[in-house]
């Protein structure tokens, strides 16, 4: 494993699921940038205390089979990983495996985060493995449709099993080394599934904001965003949600009534949305602003729920209620533009599809095409707005989301329900038969709807779920911060207790 210095200070933030709208994806990129700054500060603090953990990070490659389930297929791809030995109490210390999701991994995945804090406490060897077909773990022709058939969560779990064997041989590990896996969002689901499918390899798993239930029509996402906009604990209100509903109703009426040119000017669009597909792109982009505020609440990106509701309820009383709500939404879009580097709001559906059809790798940093393929073949997760409780535009339908499956990959829309059903049968949906898996969820996180929420008792153990009433997506995965809410601090302490308990129990079993 050749040594690698930090070639680029870019953090793959622990919030992973690639979302439906392009604007929401851009917001996520900004979240990553903010986390980068925090990671830099974390390393500066470590250096000031005399520790240089970066010097202990090594990069490696393992040649994985493209198809673990076909012995005649000898094709391989290079899979990247990082190891941090800074805290490892060799030879019997535990192993903390952070599982990569739908994006590239970086050195910081073994340098910053709550799992790293716990690794230092328990003397653990830190690992992160990049997910196949993401980042640099892909062959040059990997994005071609005929080659994407080797991209699946089942293959990814087999990669983890082979990686476990590789690391065990490289570091001369034995049964005395207890493995704990960690992940958030999609990689959180992988963490839970790895423990479920390979319980002899990983002793316990932390699954943060993990959507373990596949769902074709994920209408609950938008509904939960609406409920979060009403949640007074994070600055929401009924007035806020009412204003959002009114604003979207007026925008939709304007688009359908032919007043598209004025709408395009008001919201700073790059194009006039003359085609229906472009109008839908605009409605999705406006919804993304609220989705981003809820999903990444208080992460220092865009605005928090409290701030966004402040804009949506700050009325002058000079106009009709509906137009006032429309103007507030315009103001919100202006604020977004002022904080982004985008000159205008790109609402071209044709361009969006063209980008998804692009099979070039772009330095291994692409993710949208791969993740879209996984939504078509395994998960769904389509954030629709056809339900009457959705606060946004009913133009965003399941048919609109799923039309890309046959267009991009030749996957019939009619086949999607069966594919989703198979995933839930294979893994157990939101009632998986998993033991020693800790499911952590935030109260305003829309993805909690597809995770394990109910406390379960197995073999006399306490329920292995943690619910943080007033936090968002994967909030528990960051290192401890002075700005953490009281509920979040308590949740992190509970996670630490679970991990410590697992390690203690494992040690007792090995000496029995």
Please describe what this structure looks like.
The chain has 512 residues and is α/β, with parallel strands linked by helices. The chain has helices at 22-48, 114-122, 153-170, 186-197, 219-230, 238-256, 260-266, 276-295, 305-312, 321-339, 349-357, 368-379, 398-402, 404-409, 416-427, 486-511, and strands spanning 57-65, 76-84, 95-99, 125-129, 179-184, 204-208, 215-217, 380-382, 437-442, 465-468. It folds into two domains: 22-213 and 430-511, Rossmann fold (3-Layer(aba) Sandwich), CATH 3.40.50.1820; 216-418, Serine carboxypeptidase S28, SKS domain (Four Helix Bundle (Hemerythrin (Met), subunit A)). Helix 2 (114-122) links the parallel strand 3 and strand 4. The two termini are 36 Å apart. The model is unreliable at 1-19 (pLDDT under 50).
């Amino acid at each position: 494993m050749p040594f690698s210095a930090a070639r680029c200070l870019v953090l793959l933030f622990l919030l992973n699921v690639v979302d439906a709208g392009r604007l929401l994806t851009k917001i996520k990129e900004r979240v990553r940038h903010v986390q980068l700054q925090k990671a830099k500060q974390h390393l500066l603090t470590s250096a000031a205390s005399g520790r240089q953990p970066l010097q202990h990070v090594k990069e490696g490659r393992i040649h994985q089979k493209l198809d673990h389930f076909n012995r005649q297929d000898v094709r391989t791809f290079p899979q990247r990983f990082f190891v941090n030995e800074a805290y490892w109490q060799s030879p019997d210390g535990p192993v903390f495996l952070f599982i990569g999701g739908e994006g590239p991994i970086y050195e910081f995945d073994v340098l910053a985060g709550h799992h790293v804090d716990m690794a230092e406490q328990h003397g653990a060897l830190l690992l992160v493995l990049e997910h196949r077909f993401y980042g640099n773990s892909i062959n040059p022709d990997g994005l071609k449709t005929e080659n994407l058939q080797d991209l699946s969560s089942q293959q990814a779990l087999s990669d983890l099993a082979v990686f476990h064997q590789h690391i065990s041989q490289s570091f001369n590990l034995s049964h005395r080394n207890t493995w704990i896996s960690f992940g958030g969002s999609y990689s959180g689901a992988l963490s839970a599934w790895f423990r479920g499918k390979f319980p002899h390899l990983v002793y316990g798993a932390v699954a943060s904001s993990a959507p373990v239930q596949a769902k074709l029509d994920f209408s609950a996402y938008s509904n939960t965003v609406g409920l979060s906009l009403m949640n007074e604990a994070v600055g929401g209100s009924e007035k806020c949600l009412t204003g959002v509903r009114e604003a979207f109703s007026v925008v939709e009426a304007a688009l359908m009534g032919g007043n598209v040119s004025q709408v395009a000017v008001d919201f700073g669009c790059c194009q006039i949305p003359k085609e229906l597909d472009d109008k839908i792109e605009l409605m999705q982009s406006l919804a993304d602003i609220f989705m981003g505020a809820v999903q990444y609440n208080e992460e220092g990106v865009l605005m928090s729920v409290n701030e966004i509701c402040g804009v949506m309820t700050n009325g002058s009383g000079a106009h009709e209620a509906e137009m006032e709500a429309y103007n507030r939404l315009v103001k919100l879009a202006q604020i977004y533009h002022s904080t982004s580097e985008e000159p205008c709001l790109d609402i071209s559906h044709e361009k969006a599809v063209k980008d998804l059809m692009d099979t070039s790798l772009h330095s291994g940093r692409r993710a949208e095409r791969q993740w879209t393929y996984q939504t078509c073949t395994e998960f769904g997760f389509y954030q629709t707005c056809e339900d009457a409780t959705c606060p946004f535009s009913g133009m965003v339908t399941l048919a609109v989301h799923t039309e890309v499956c046959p267009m991009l990959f030749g996957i019939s829309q009619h086949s999607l329900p069966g594919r989703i059903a198979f995933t839930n049968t294979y893994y157990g949906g939101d009632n998986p038969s998993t033991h020693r898996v800790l499911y952590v969820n935030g109260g305003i996180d829309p993805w909690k709807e597809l995770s394990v929420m109910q406390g379960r008792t197995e073999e006399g153990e306490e329920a292995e779920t943690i619910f943080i009433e007033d936090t968002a997506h994967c909030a528990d995965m960051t290192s401890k911060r002075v700005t953490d809410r009281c509920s979040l601090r308590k949740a992190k302490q509970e996670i630490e207790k679970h991990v410590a308990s697992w390690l203690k129990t494992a040690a007792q079993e090995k000496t029995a």
